[in-house]
Amino acid sequence: MRELAPQVLGVLARRFGDFATAEDAVQEALLAAATQWPVEGLPANPRGWLIQVGYRRMIELVRGEQARRRREDLVAREAPDDRQHAPAADEELTTERDDTLVLLLLCCHPALTSASAVALTLRAVGGLSTAEIARAFLVPEATMAQRISRAKQRIRSSGLPFRMPEPAERADRLTAVRQVLYLIFTEGHTSTAGPDLRRVDLATEAIRLARALHALLPGDSESAGLLALMLLTEARSPARTSPSGELISLADQDRTRWDAAAIAEGVALVTWALPRGPVGPYQVQAAIAALHDEAPSTEATDWPQILALYEVLEQLAGSPVVALNRAVATAMVHGPTAGLAALDALADDPRLAGHHRLPAARAHLHEMAGDRELAIADYRAAAGRTSSLPEHRYLTMRAARLAAEPDSSTADVRPASADATPATADVRPASADTTPATADVRPASADTTPATADVRPAGTRRAPGPSGAAGPGDLAAAGPAIAGPTSTSAPAAGRAEPGTS
Predict the structure, then answer these.
(1) What are phi and psi of 247, to 5 degrees?
(2) Cys-Cys with 282: which of 91, 226, 372, 451 at CB 3.0–4.6 Å?
(3) What is the pLDDT of residue 486?
(4) Rounded CA gap, 258 and 389, in Å?
(5) Cβ–Cβ < 8 Å for 379, 399
(6) What does the DSSP 8-state code read for residue 462?
(7) Are 20 and 160 in contact (CB under 8 A)?
(8) Which residues pair with 474 in a beta bridge?
(9) Are 62 and 20 in contact (CB under 8 A)?
(10) How far from 435 is each of 166, 262, 302, 391, 431, CA to CA, in Å?
(11) How many Å apart are CA 107 and CA 170, to the nearest integer?
(12) Which residues of the chain fall short of a pLDDT of 70?
């Protein structure tokens, strides 16, 4: 029923022009199905059954509302009478269209806050109950219900018709959809608070919705890149924690436990997407993730290629967290001193103030450099800033292990968190934990800049264009920086934090 819910909602919202009331009618239809189907059996056409039950309930709700208005002699609320009315009894109900994409675009409208868009998308398109969403974000059910209600009211008061946006605004609206889906995924992959590292239900739902978006827009390379990024990141999840729930750094993970099928699917998607362009931030991040996933070990990872990709990503969608991850990649290529110098440039950025990522990355690079005391201090500082209990334990234990080592120890200089927040184990999918292993990012010349990096699937060779011009896989043809979400999941990047609205 979860897959049918958005289709039914789309039919009713399109027919009646009232998203909020249609959503209530669909919930009642789902409740009726949950009660009747186990007793009476599954109908021959479950989707048609839900539409008919929801349609009848919608007529009752709309007519009841019209009667209330007449009794109270009030002006119609926000929607004019020609948009909200009970149709004639003999009017045909069109049910064949799939309005899931229109529904996604409506739920992710720019007028909504990120937190509201996430909640409304999970409810209306994901089919999750209010209680399920509240549990996932560790807030009371009443709080989540208010958030969803306010989101529906905002959409209602906006007067937006239930239809596909005009071409001029469609690209921006699709960008918002991708961002909301990725926010859901990042919270599921690494929860911002609480005792558990992951919220599997959210990550699974985000991937399901990303699949649906890719199916609805099979030619959209950036939507394919988003799905690839999620798959390549989630593929490492089986090895991210020990049986007791403790974080395991990327360097120490048992790579035989990674999901080979998910990696193969993600690599195939990003390999398909990159040559088609325009190249966007999700495709670049998927390429970074693929590079990590395809490497047999941390030491064998193609760090120069990853560094080149982060430089490309900074041009497409720069942010302090992207710069932070580039600094870690710089350290892996040019040494910890170079990486620390790059981190120093971020020290005064207010968007990282109070966040654990910066001291965690700094601690990792100090550890690489053999500066034990500085590494211990930064690990402890990072532990004090994170609200995630698994991250706090990991960072605290890392500091304690270094403190217990003899002064002559140089510690383990492998990257502690190439699989997410650098130096903090595997704590965030968008950072170094997502790096394409499928893009062949080699300099076009010995002194090439990131803007001319050659981004294409690994193992392929590009035929030169006319007069030696770059082929379709060359990022130089992507134009100016593309606006949109970066690989970060930090609040500075617009992440919806639990408890916000």
Answers:
(1) -65, 145
(2) 226
(3) 31
(4) 24
(5) yes
(6) P
(7) no
(8) 454
(9) no
(10) 34, 15, 10, 21, 8
(11) 14
(12) 1-2, 65-98, 138, 160-162, 407-501
Q: Which of 73, 78, 33 is nearest to 57 (CA)?
A: 33
List phi, psi (to 5°) of 406: -60, 155
Cα dihedral 355, 489, 343, 427 sign: positive
Give the residue from 364, 339, 371 showing the smallest Cα distance to 416: 364
Would you state the pLDDT for residue 269? 97
- Give the SS3 label for residue 410: coil
Place of tokens 């600094």: 327
pLDDT computed for residue 391 by the predictor: 93
Query: Hey, is 388 helix, strand or coil?
Result: strand
- Determine which helix (DSSP H) or strand (DSSP E) holds 278, and give its type and residue range: none
- At 298, give phi and psi (nearest 5°): -65, -40
SS3 474: strand
Nearest to 180 by CA among 481, 428, 432, 485: 485
Q: What is the pLDDT of residue 485?
A: 29
Contact (Cβ atoms closer than 8 angstroms) between residue 474 and residue 451: no
Strands (E), 145-233: none
Region class of 467: left (phi > 0), else alpha (psi between -120 and 50), else beta: left
Indicate the average pLDDT of the chain. 76
Question: In terms of DSSP H, where are the helices of 17-166?
Answer: 19-40, 46-72, 100-107, 114-124, 130-136, 141-158
pTM of the model: 0.68
Q: Which of 190, 202, 187, 239 is nearest to 494 (CA)?
A: 187
CA separation for the pair 501, 499 (Å, rounded): 7
Tokens describing residue 102: 């229109």
Instruction: Give the integer Cα–Cα distance in Å for 210 and 226.
Output: 7
Instruction: For CA atoms 228, 232, 237, 238, give the dihedral sign.
Output: positive
Calpha distance 452→24 (Å, rounded):
52
Tokens for 382, please give them: 């990072």
Please give the single-letter amino acid code of residue 454: D
Residue 343's pLDDT is 95
Kindly report, residue by residue over 155-170, the tens digit of the pLDDT. 877 776 667 777 777 8
CA proximity to 287, closest of 232, 215, 219: 232
